[in-house]
C-alpha cells in the first residue's frame, strides 16, 4: 500500500537523523519534513498555505542536497561550516541572492519547535481538550514570534478547523488514541534531540536571527 501513511514513520525519520557524533543528517531530516507535509495535506485544503511554505523550504534544501556541492550538505554541521567559510550566509538583510541553507533550515527548525510543543500538548492533554487550543498555544509560544500579523491571523483561523483530540490522534494512523499517545511518548524525545542539537549549533555560530 503505497499510500499507507502513519505518523509513526514520519517521526522515526527524526530518530535516524542524529549520528553517533551528534551530527544531524539532512537526508532523514528532509524525509521527516516531507512526511509532515503529507500529514498537513491530509488535514485539508485550509492547511495548504501552511504546507506551501514548508514545501518551498524543503525544495530549496533538496536542491542543495542534490547539487554540485552535495557533499557539503550531508549534515547540518557540514552545511554550516561550508556556508560560513564561503560567505554564503547573508547576515545583514536578505540579499537578492539565493536563500542559504542556513537561513532556510532555521525556518524549518523554528517550525519544528512548534511541532514539538504541539505534539507534546496533544500527548499530555486531557481527552476533552481542544486540539485547536493546543495548536494555537504552542504556535503562540514558538513560531508566531517570527510571523507578521496576517500570517498569525490566517494560521489561527486554520487551527480552528482541526478535528477534536481523539479524531486527530486517529488520523495519525498509529492505532487507537492510547497507542498514538504512547507512540508520541517514544518519538518526541528524538525530535527534542534534533531540535536541541540544531539550536546549539546555530547559537554557537550566531545564526539564530538570520534574515
Ligand atoms: C499540525 C502541526 C504541523 C506543524 C508543521 C509546521 C509547518 C510550518 C510552516 C509554517 C508556515 C506559515 C506560513 C509561512 C510563513 C513564512 O513567512 C515563514 N516560514 C516559516 C516556516 O515560519 C518565514 O519564511 P521566510 O518568509 O523568512 O522565507
From TrEMBL:
Keywords: Cell membrane, Cytoplasm, Endosome, Golgi apparatus, Lipid transport, Lipid-binding, Membrane, Nucleus, Transport. The keyword Acetylation does not apply. SUPFAM superfamilies: Glycolipid transfer protein, GLTP. InterPro entries: GLTP_sf (IPR036497), Glycolipid_transfer_prot_dom (IPR014830). Residues 26-173 form the Glycolipid transfer protein domain. This is Ceramide-1-phosphate transfer protein. Belongs to the GLTP family. GO terms for molecular function: ceramide 1-phosphate binding; ceramide 1-phosphate transfer activity. Pfam families: GLTP. It is found in: Cell membrane; Cytoplasm, Cytosol; Endosome membrane; Golgi apparatus, trans-Golgi network membrane.
